[in-house]
Amino acid sequence: MSAIAIDIGEKRYKAQVGGPGREIFRGFRLDVAAGDFVALLGESGIGKTTLLNIVAGLDRDFRGQVRFGTKAPRFAYAFQNPRLLPWRSVVENVALPLPAGEPGRRRALAMLGEVGLAELADAYPERLSLGQQRRVALARAFAIEPDVLLMDEPFVSLDEAGAARLRDLLRRLLARRPATVLFVTHDRREAVELADRIVVLEGTPVRIVRDMPLALTPAERASPGRIDEVRRALGAGVEPG
Ligand SMILES: Nc1ncnc2c1ncn2[C@@H]1O[C@H](COP(=O)(O)OP(=O)(O)OP(=O)(O)O)[C@@H](O)[C@H]1O
């Protein structure tokens, strides 16, 4: 059975004043196997965030259903903006989804150690670079050992070296705590480096125009030639990455 079975009969946003509104999904289906890392590529404004919100249960204003392979799966959601609470220390931010008290704090500290930020545990988010804030967001996401990890362009606006370090970190975290991942990106290279499957979305309402499994070794994922090959196979229609 799939870890996530998405079946959206219809999702539309109402127009601000009168008008027919905008239909984002009609008859959209996507099944994701347990433990798969699926990269979702598609132009800006097409509906990728809407899809993640529907899967997360944050948006219930649609016709259809999302079913999960496990009962009551644990979700973690990592956004483009790390969304740390500025009035809480780094360790308190990581401990937010955990039960209050000492065990939660210890677990948060251990997660910070894993993402290489143990020494900043008592700092406040404003002191951190964007890359460090995103590490904290990853620590918070993995602290609950999620079954389903939803990521919405979590590494955008970093320089290439910073983004590469975060991709590495994500791979390591997933190796220790496997999860089923839906990862939105505009960057095909990022998709090739991380994903087991790349799904390209297009149009209004959204349809799947490419659905490509990627069984690559780590060396192949890092090979510029192989990355170019997959990028070409994905075709036009997605912003260059
Ligand atoms: N609450 C809302 N009310 C009305 N329209 C909305 C709402 N949220 C999103 N939209 C519109 O729905 C469309 C899909 O938005 P969504 O954020 O899902 O796209 P996206 O593919 O994630 O875009 P991006 O890549 O730019 O983040 C957009 O045209 C957006 O303007």
TrEMBL record:
<dbReference type="InterPro" id="IPR050166">
    <property type="entry name" value="ABC_transporter_ATP-bind"/>
</dbReference>
<dbReference type="InterPro" id="IPR027417">
    <property type="entry name" value="P-loop_NTPase"/>
</dbReference>
<keyword id="KW-0813">Transport</keyword>
<protein>
    <recommendedName>
        <fullName>ABC transporter domain-containing protein</fullName>
    </recommendedName>
</protein>
<keyword id="KW-0067">ATP-binding</keyword>
<dbReference type="GO" id="GO:0005524">
    <property type="term" value="F:ATP binding"/>
</dbReference>
<dbReference type="InterPro" id="IPR003593">
    <property type="entry name" value="AAA+_ATPase"/>
</dbReference>
<keyword id="KW-0547">Nucleotide-binding</keyword>
<dbReference type="GO" id="GO:0016887">
    <property type="term" value="F:ATP hydrolysis activity"/>
</dbReference>
<dbReference type="InterPro" id="IPR017871">
    <property type="entry name" value="ABC_transporter-like_CS"/>
</dbReference>
<comment type="similarity">
    <text>Belongs to the ABC transporter superfamily.</text>
</comment>
<dbReference type="InterPro" id="IPR003439">
    <property type="entry name" value="ABC_transporter-like_ATP-bd"/>
</dbReference>
<dbReference type="Pfam" id="PF00005">
    <property type="entry name" value="ABC_tran"/>
</dbReference>
<feature type="domain" description="ABC transporter">
    <location>
        <begin position="3"/>
        <end position="228"/>
    </location>
</feature>
